[in-house]
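DM from R.C. (forwarded with permission)

"hey, sorry to bug you on a friday — could you get me a structure for this? deadline for the figure draft is monday and I only need the backbone to look sensible"
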Amino acid sequence: MAAPNTLYIPIIAERMSAAVFLEVMRFLSDDLGLIDYIPDSSAGGDYVHLPKYGKISSGFDRLDVTGTITTGQSAKTSTMKDQIAVVRHKGLLFEYYASNADRAGITSEEFSAEIGRQIAIEAAKSLIVDCYNASIAAADNCSGDHDHDPYVDTGTAGSQVDMTADVIQSAKYLLGDLMDTLDIAVDHSKQWNDLTQSSISTAYNVPNIMGDVYRNGQFRQILGTTFITDDQIPTAAGPTTGSPTKYQALFFRSRKNHPEGLAPLVVSFQRPLTIYTQHVLGQQSVKFQRQPELAYAVGVRGMTWDVTHGGANPTDGAFATATNWDDAYSHHKELGIVLLRSN
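My reply, with the result:
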């Protein structure tokens, strides 16, 4: 058998990276209905203007059949506020030496494909976390209409409020008669464990959003909601030093439950995932440097990025700050996201 050659082949890495990244995006868009894609924004710029779907602000009134215009027949306007998503520029620099790639039985094709796969997963994680942060910030911005927070700042386990079926129902009820349209949930493993131990005894575990869940089609259904457990969902610190961790779960109205078939989140790619490569010579062993980069915008339907306060290409902290987002809906129920915080 010929000796393995572990020379990096960029085209193989790029093709594998694109395939894996698109598979994760397909899962979020087609399987879960959480993301819609809008036309490519590769023309550049710091912001993407999203399609407007404002609602008529009031209903029909009684007509006077004599032809007299009554007081109630004032003009009905739709609050078609502009909805803007900010472009996020992301990159990763990693390096290794040629000696690190010398492994028996690994061909150059296998080595290159594995690098591409890992790059795609890290890129997908970055976008998914941005989706979580945008959703949390949007819910926080809505003055309690989309944020159920029964968290208790105490070290006494018996006084803490874990995520149970009752707590979930209270969170969903924030949308009133639309509560049953919230059919997708992303929770932390601690919350899922509390839920299964408290009131749901027949549930079974499946891998998280970056695992095999989108390959084998297994989903956990509770209270009419599909649960995905992902410990990438951000946690929050308690109000005081030593406070217990505040865990966060997001409930979404997927595309299939929206009257116009729209997903709650919008993604537009300004620059596709691209891997830049260089070899650094003059070392005892040749150094390989890889720098994958991509640029995308994550928008929340019913919300807009505040270009004045948030600015262009925000830091991770600024992107996750609720005050850098503004509502752009006619009624808060148009925002198909609810945030639940628990111990």
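R.C.: lifesaver. Confidence is low (pLDDT under 50) at residues 200-218.
me: no worries. The chain has one domain: 10-56+75-342.
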